[in-house]
Structure formats: structure tokens, C-alpha cells
Amino acid sequence: QVQLAESGGGSVQAGGSLRLSCKISRDFYESLCMGWFRQAPGKEREGVAWIDSYDTTNYADSVRGRFVVSADSEKNNLYLQMNDLKPEDTAMYYCAADSWSWSRDCARGDYGTWGQGTQVTVSS
């Protein structure tokens, strides 16, 4: 069983930076797909960035070049470094995890385990 807990959200002015963290707790090691998602009020949830246990990363076009997803070597902590933040980045941010396989694209498909979310607010 995997459990996730985000931290690091907050308020920042446009152009600023924030780093989100996600603590991954699990009973045994398994290869994972991990991702950051966000949901703004009145909008659908969208994927932002993904990484797998082998450090393969992918990004949504809206954040590519501004956000960096990473994880520690044991994949117990997931991070999202957000730079050059824009007001449109304002949302509740969630980390998520699911089982990895050779045939899976971690940027696609459903994720079964989610954190509680952390709010990011960017003012202009």
C-alpha cells in the first residue's frame, strides 16, 4: 500500500518559484509511475509532470521549461520545482502514484493513489 502526503504550497507573485514535496510511504518497494496534477476552480484536473522509478520524465506543454520533476534515489520523496510561476498556475496541486510497467507511459492512464493536495496561488 502506498500513501502520499504533499507539502510546500503557498502564495507567490508572478515570476516567483515554489518547490512542492510529496512524501511516499509504502510497505515494500515497487517500481512506480509518479506524477503531479493540478486542478483550478471550475476546471478539470490536468497532469503537469511525471517521473518513473527509472527517472524518465515528461511534462505538460504548459509547464515545460519552467517546472522540473524529480525524486530522491530511493523514490521516497517526489518533488516539483516550479519556476517563473504565472497566475494561470494557480491551482490545487496533487501528487499521485501508480504501478509501473515496461509497456506503460506514465503520462497516460489512471493513477490509483493520491495525496491530499496543496494549494498554489500566484498573484499578478
What does this structure look like?
This protein is mainly beta. It is 0% helix and 52% strand. It is globular, with a radius of gyration of 14 Å. Strands 2, 4, 5, 6, 9, 10 and 11 form a seven-stranded mixed beta sheet that branches. A four-stranded antiparallel beta sheet has the order 1-3-8-7, with no helix packed on it. The protein is built from no helices and eleven strands. The mean pLDDT is 96. It has strands at residues 2-7, 10-13, 18-26, 32-39, 46-52, 57-59, 67-71, 77-82, 91-99, 113-114, 118-123.
What is the structure about, briefly put?
The protein is 0% helix and 52% strand. By secondary structure, the chain is mainly β. The N and C termini lie far apart (41 Å).
Described by strand count, sense and barrel closure, the largest sheet is: 7 strands, mixed
Can you write the helix and strand succession as a string? EEEEEEEEEEE
Low-confidence stretches: none
Helix content: under 10%
Tell me what portion of residues adopts beta-strand conformation: over 45%
Number of helices: 0
